[in-house]
Design goal:
The chain is an alpha/beta fold. Strands 1-7-6-5-4-2-3 form a seven-stranded mixed beta sheet, sandwiched between helices. Helix 8 packs across helix 11. The longest helix has 20 residues. Bound molecules: pyridoxal-5'-phosphate (PLP).
Length: 322
């Protein structure tokens, strides 16, 4: 039988063969657990090649943990994180960021998945007032949850605003590879060079089996992160098998090839469905997601063949991830 294919999520896809091969190749003999091993050192070296040697990187199992623990390292419980009302940290992490950081998340309505300096300025208040939570971090998602991509200027402006107001910029980069490719930038140019302080670096949606990382460009913030990660139940004992997934993705630009392919497939899908009169593309297709309004009666029929999620029930908008 032909293997099933869906447009539900990048996570419905399998693992890149080179990643599986790397896991298999690392499955030799014994090495010390918990990250004190040559495979982890090699993967950290690959991150440093991408982002510069003066960074710290901590691998975790999933994106919710990368976001939650990264934000925990940036905040105190009386502070607040400003994000969009579509942010994964706000809508799809079952309150983990609130539980672990103790912080209030301040959601800002968005029509394209993005925060702007203007919208953040609106939410930035109560500073110095003992009755108010104190804004401490701006969290942006790149690629956004609506498949759009912040321009370098948009990220830089948000970073500048954050830093001018004693705040930090967090980036949920579950799809940072797709964003970098879309912008024609290196991973570093798309993050650190724009002023991001802490990055959740996504491996899973880029072909890994389950590998995410918290990358600190502001190293002061990770002084206690070893303990934060362990207390957050995200310290892998057999760390080598997470590490080699990153090593594979960050070798010979595999991360880039995978992201280019996914983005190209979304562009193709957009091009083809746009030929259908009843289909309306609702957000700019800038990475690997296509959001379309389609006839309501077509949804269930299509889902039987190629499963996908409905993004907005009322408006019959569906999300097709490549
Ligand atoms: C924007 C975004 N951030 C983070 C994640 C990571 O989530 P998970 O905890 O499922 O790995 C996802 C996955 O769906 C996502 O779309």
């Amino acid at each position: 039988m032909k293997p099933a294919r869906s447009f539900a999520s990048d996570n419905n896809a399998g693992v890149h063969p080179k990643v599986l091969q790397a896991i298999s190749s690392a499955n030799q003999g014994h090495v010390v657990g918990y990250g004190d091993d040559p495979y982890t050192a090699a993967a950290v070296g690959k991150f440093k090649q991408q982002f510069g040697s003066d960074i710290d990187v901590f691998m975790v199992f999933n994106g919710t943990a990368a976001n939650t623990l990264g934000l925990k390292a940036m905040t105190e419980s009386y502070q607040a994180v400003i994000c969009t009302d579509a942010a994964h940290i706000y809508t799809d992490e079952c309150g983990a960021p609130e539980k672990f950081t103790g912080c209030k998340l301040i959601p800002i309505t968005t029509t394209d998945g993005k925060l702007t300096v203007e919208s953040v300025r609106h939410a930035y208040h109560g500073v110095g007032d003992q009755h108010h939570v104190q804004p401490r971090a701006i969290s942006i998602t790149q690629v956004t949850e609506m498949g759009t991509v912040y321009t370098p200027k948009e990220v830089r402006d948000l970073a500048r605003f954050a830093h001018q107001h004693d705040m930090l910029l967090h980036m949920d980069g579950a799809r940072i590879a797709n964003a970098a490719v879309s912008l024609g930038l290196t991973l570093r140019e798309a993050t650190r060079d724009l002023g991001v302080d802490v990055l959740s670096f996504g491996g899973t949606k880029n072909g890994a089996m389950g590998a995410e990382a918290v990358v600190f460009f502001d190293r002061k913030l990770c002084r206690d992160f070893l303990y934060v990660r362990k207390q957050g139940m995200q310290l892998a004992s057999k760390m080598r098998f997470i590490a080699v997934q990153f090593e594979a993705l960050l070798t010979n630009d595999l991360w880039r090839k995978n992201a280019e392919h996914a983005n190209r497939m979304a562009a193709l899908l957009k091009r083809e469905v746009s030929k259908i009169r009843q289909v309306r593309i609702v957000y700019k297709v800038e990475a690997n997601g296509v959001f379309a309004q389609i006839p309501r009666q077509a949804i269930a029929k299509l889902q039987k063949r190629y499963f996908f999620y409905v993004w907005n029930e009322e408006e019959a908008v569906v999300r097709w991830m490549c």
